[in-house]
Design brief:
The chain has about 325 residues and is of the alpha/beta class. The protein contains 11 helices and 14 strands. It has 2 domains: about 220 residues, Rossmann fold, CATH 3.40.50.300; about 70 residues, 2-Layer Sandwich (Alpha-Beta Plaits). It binds adenosine-5'-diphosphate and magnesium ion.
Length: about 325
């Protein structure tokens, strides 16, 4: 890629003391204006990758360019081209929202008048006009995330890094943030590198997804193509008699291999696709089994994750929403 506002990473490695390879040979490209979702469980290496790409952590091996600048050799140029809202937002509880944006504008060397105009505009865009005069210590989790996003956007970055921007947010704040991130990419051509442990978030927001596990990318494509790789739907059934779960597993097992199912239910990935459903019903009937529910599920990103890693991402790291009313 020529100098542009994308991201190009080749064989990126970060080894911590003791030899732990938190990031173990990651290669990826993000095109200008694209939203790239970096999806993986806790400890997968997402934040370590973001810290290297934002020049906050030295790389052990490999190369990375961000907005056309080399992260190892052109740190100041990288930093002027990017904005970052990191997992641990560095907000001062004793400063107000307005004071934060003004301070940030000054740090970027923006002229006072322009800094004020831009700061007010961003506070409005993230819905913090009314709270702007209040100290950040009294903000809810969602308000802090929104302020952190405004600070990251103040100088009009070409590339935006968001490290788990919606972890712990209530569904409404999450939706608002998704909308703003989509708008930035679509209307302003901002390149977005976003980490998440939420399948739903990656699915809804990202143009392309890289699934990271244990420091390595195990799958990468558009959400649609990733799900299509799995291809076949699964069938999930609940026996009328809870004691018959094992028998149900045996009958369904004739049609495909087992996949994760909620407690009380049995599910298999259909070996020959949805057309088999009628035969499944006949087989259950033939075995004299009562069925209290039966449904067909299209493949999800969790199926992709499960197939690539042998584990399920669903339900892992589900933090309770911590948002308090503003
Ligand atoms: N400063 C550090 N020193 C040693 N190990 C670290 C450090 N930062 C992260 N790690 C380890 O590196 C791995 C990846 O961490 P991280 O990048 O934070 O994962 P994620 O953001 O995907 O949850 C984890 O095993 C974590 O414990
Ligand atoms: Mg992290």
């Amino acid at each position: 890629m020529a100098a542009g506002s994308g991201i190009e990473v080749e064989g990126l490695v970060r080894e911590f003391k003791g030899g732990l390879r938190a990031v173990d040979g990651v290669s990826l490209r993000v095109s200008p204006g694209e939203i790239y979702g970096f999806l993986g469980p806790n400890g997968a290496g997402k934040s370590t990758t973001v810290l290297m790409l934002t020049t906050l952590l030295p790389i052990t091996a490999g190369t990375a360019t961000v907005a056309g600048f080399d992260v190892a050799r052109q740190g100041p140029l990288v930093r002027s081209a990017i904005g970052a809202a990191l997992q641990e937002a560095a907000l001062d509880p004793y400063l107000t929202g307005t004071e934060h944006v003004r301070l940030q504008a000054a740090l970027h060397g923006m002229p006072r008048k322009e800094g004020r105009r831009r700061g007010d505009e961003l506070l409005e865009r993230v819905g913090l006009v009314e709270a702007a005069g209040r100290k950040v210590g009294g903000y809810s989790g969602g308000m802090k995330r929104r302020l952190d996003l405004a600070l990251a956007l103040l100088h009009g970055p070409e590339v935006l890094f968001l490290d788990e921007p919606t972890t712990g947010l209530d569904p409404q704040s999450r939706q608002a943030l998704w909308e703003e991130v989509s708008r930035l990419a679509t209307d302003e051509g901002v390149t977005v590198f976003l980490t998440t442990q939420y399948l739903e978030e990656a699915d809804a927001l990202a143009d392309r997804i890289g699934i990271i596990d244990d420091g390595k990318i195990v799958a990468e494509d558009t959400p649609k193509a990733l799900k299509a790789q799995i291809g076949r739907p699964s069938v999930e059934a609940v026996p009328q008699e809870p004691a018959e779960q094992e028998k149900m597993a045996e009958v369904l097992g004739r049609f495909g291999s087992p996949v994760a199912a909620p407690s009380g239910a049995v599910a298999v990935r259909l070996e020959h696709g949805a057309g088999e459903l009628a035969e499944v019903v006949r087989a259950l009937d033939g075995a004299g089994m009562g069925v209290s529910s039966l449904r067909l599920d299209e493949p999800t990103l969790d199926d992709v994750f499960l197939e690539k890693t042998g584990r399920s991402l669903e339900g892992e790291g589900e933090d309770a929403a911590e948002e308090a009313p503003a």
